[in-house]
Amino acid sequence: VMAIGGLLLCAAQTPGLVLPAGALLFVYLLRPGTRVTVAAPAVAARLPFSVRAGWAIGTLVTTSLLFLTSTFFLRYMTDYVGMAAALAGTLLASTKIVDAFLNPFVGVLSDNARSAAGRRRPFLLAGALLGGAGLVLQFSVPVALQGLALTAYVFASLVLVWLSSVLFNVPYLAILAEMTAVRHGELARGR
Hints:
The structure is a single chain. The chain is an all-alpha fold. The chain contains 8 helices and no strands. Helix 4 runs parallel beside helix 6, helix 4 packs antiparallel against helix 7 and helix 5 packs parallel to helix 7.
């Protein structure tokens, strides 16, 4: 995901380059001047497929973070790092408590943010970049760490992963309502 984002960042800076429909969300995020607009005729029109597909690609970020952490974390910590299963499970569960407090906080920040890049874009970019860094830290525990230092390192890397997930996911889910002029009921029926 980080590599694709980096390539799209370079592509987004190239004037006149035509990108595939799936790259639209990333271009929207990476080029501050990009605006997604939808005409609002008398009869509500569907969002173009390219806009829907571009928005849907953002799910890769949140799904990757959740899948990698939920699926491989406990096994990595117990089998490769040598941490007790109860401690690894407790660390994972405790970061979900931190996550519960972060969600509304990031939501308020995102709703009230003022930026030349838009109010959601800085959070989306920060979440995507921190997510990559958090996963690298989470699955590359230094061999020399033992005891409390190991526990603190693992907890910090987990908090970074969940923070990045919240920084991306909360504004990502809110941005859909800002991409269309279609009323809620029509959006729910797929129009």
